[in-house]
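Backbone geometry tokens:
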Amino acid sequence: MNAARRIYCRAFQKAFRIAIPLLPYRKPEILNGISELPGLFRKKGIKSVLLVTDKGIRGMGLTKNLESIMKENGIKLSIYDSTVANPTTENVEEARRLYISSEAEAIIGFGGGSSIDAAKAVGARIAYPRKPLSKMEGILKVLRKIPLLVAIPTTAGTGSETTLASVIVDSKTRHKYPINSFPLIPRYAVLDPEVTRTLPPSLTASTGLDALTHAVEAYIGGSTTKETRKNAKEAVRLIFSSLTKAYHNGNDMNARREMLHAAFLAGAAFTVSYVGYVHAVAHSLGGKYNVPHGLANAVLLPYVLEKYGRSAERKLSELADVVGISGKDAHEKATLFIKAIKAMEREMKIPEKLHGIRKEDIPELSRYADKEANPLYPVPMLMNAKELEEFYYDVMEENKASIATTA
């Protein structure tokens, strides 16, 4: 990155860091079970609610208890269950139309980050009926109050239940972009480990590593606060102690509960301190190839941390201390911390490469990543689009790249 742009990025980031105490950050109020929702809605005078979820979640019966409780309490529940992984503008518009036709007064996002992100975007479109989502990309483009939003995460990873971000894919262009605005932070989050019990091991792993990515990127960036550092450290500690337990035994409710708490804390950390190039590159891959976000983050994380090198050593060594990794100096501890992440990923069968990346797409993908990350993300080491291309080659399956190119 050239000197002028480097100065601009750092000045932009410093301005946002200075502004943190003045901005309306908040945490959702935590509910411990779905059974608490009817009382909440009665208190708010809400009689009709839109549920945004996906067919997999509903097909497994995870929404059945919610549907029964709402019916028993005389609250109308309209259900949109067509959300896809990497939710699209089409998903949002379909759900928005159902919200309007059912005369809903509140929204529940039930599922992983995709459903919760879609629910946030529906709220944004209700607040701005004449403004397309493409005009909300970036920061502070949604200023109006959205309908009351409740998030019920079924994965312990995205942290979407506590963040101001909604990540959406344009149905036509496949461009994936974040919408970052304070009204999108859910008012309530239901953290119930029972709804995560049936999460398959592969998703337990990838979503848990998504949470780890949130915590690590928030911690090593340049816009941390005392609270975000505390949240990130505790999230990392919980993930290292509980993720593989939940992976090997999905019925370990203590591990499931700790992972939900870790994801919440990691989300609280990065919603203030932001993420970094892992996320920027992962979002571009999700938009272009529909790579699940948690998987993309998991595969990319060690490569990006290694690339940061000395610029992230001190902070990575501090995270190593949190999980009991010792070494003779910061360099050794940072190196061992990255190795520990790799070992965790191998134990949970996370691949080292991603299938389907095409060489001719990489310049465009890196431009998308550059646009998302710079100047907003306060990364340890700045990189431009050309430099970011390296990560796509790092995770590309070389033996299949030529086949994908000619397909």
Notes: The beta strands are 29-31, 48-52, 76-80, 106-111, 138-139, 148-153, 165-169, 176-180, 188-190. The chain has 16 helices and nine strands.
